[in-house]
Design a protein that fits this description.
Structural class: alpha+beta
Order of helices and strands: HHHHHHHHHEHEEHEE
Strand order of the largest sheet: 1-2-3-5-4
Distance between the termini: 63 Å
Shape: rod-shaped
Radius of gyration: 38 Å
Mean pLDDT: 83
Largest sheet: 5 strands, mixed
Low-confidence stretches: 257-262
Oligomer: single chain
Number of domains: 3
Helix content: 55-70%
Number of helices: 11
Number of strands: 5
Length: 382
Amino acid sequence: MMTGVKRLDWFLAGAVTVLGFVLMYENITITDAGDARSIADGSMVHLTDSHSWWMIPVFLGATLPVLWWRRSVLAVTGVALGFLTLHDLLFGWVTRCGAGLPLVFVLAFLGALTYPRTKAWLAVGLSALLTVAVLVVDATTGPQVLALALPLVLVVFGIGRAARHRSVLHQQLKIRDEELRQVRDDRAALAVADDRARLSQQLDGFLQDRLAQLTTAAESSDGLAPAQARALLESIEAGSRRTLDDMREIVGLLRGGEVDLAPAPTVAHLDALLARHPSAGSRLTVSGDSRSLPATVELSAYRIVEYLVAVLADRADAPIHVAVRFADEALEIRVTGPVGRGVDVKAAVARAKERAKLLGGSVDMKIARGQARAVAQLPVVG
């Protein structure tokens, strides 16, 4: 296939070319007696001047360039006007309207659809001249049909302009939607950076306080009996372990992406998350041994559902089902819902997978017939 030529271009050029070939063949094969009968019954206005076989290639010179209308509708219309003017000069009164007028309408519509206002009016001007070239010495209609054909060209041009306006509006809305998504992501990133900074300050203060407590306890061991010293060391060890566990939890929040300090959302908040979705069909089901889990697991579970619901809730009428199952060693989350066209599911799944990976878990997503099914597995430690 030629570079830049699409199936629609082949169809348009092929249709007007076939019409032109058939029409020129009829001009070649019609007899003077047939012309006379057609004039007598009113289906023709003039005898056919020529029966030359050269009518076919000259006429096809006007239709074949439609293949390349995407490069320049103005150029294609100019070429068609040149070949049809040459056709008029060489062959005089023959029938051209049956293929020439469809060619005019196609080019007028494409010019209106393709160009901004100034070039579009130039294209419709060339289409009007092309209409004159088609009808001025047309043996079937005669030039009197110009009074009807030229307004029809303007009507087709208006339809093309309306189609262009709708296309431009759709593109602008698409760009605006992408900009709003980007702004939302940027705001989320700024919030994450702010929360991480506050968490870092909190971690620093927390460590200073705990280390001061442990240092004070260690200094108080002088002069204690062996049993008392052993008990003190055991309390220091227990305190150290609690400090390490708390550090791990806070570091997990720092690494995990979006964090929230007031307080961190949990699995129990998923009902409220789905309640913000306008579809009445959205629901949450919980099964298994429901219990409190480590904060990092609870937060990650909430965020994973949040990421997935954000893209599946792109349509207001899209029912979403979230199923949470508490197993002995893992928390299983299933999210199902329809996927709208143009929705960036990959980005949401990538964020969910990154969140699960921090805990050694996984997220799998399958999309079939416009329906998305995501399964997340989060190991439960402790």
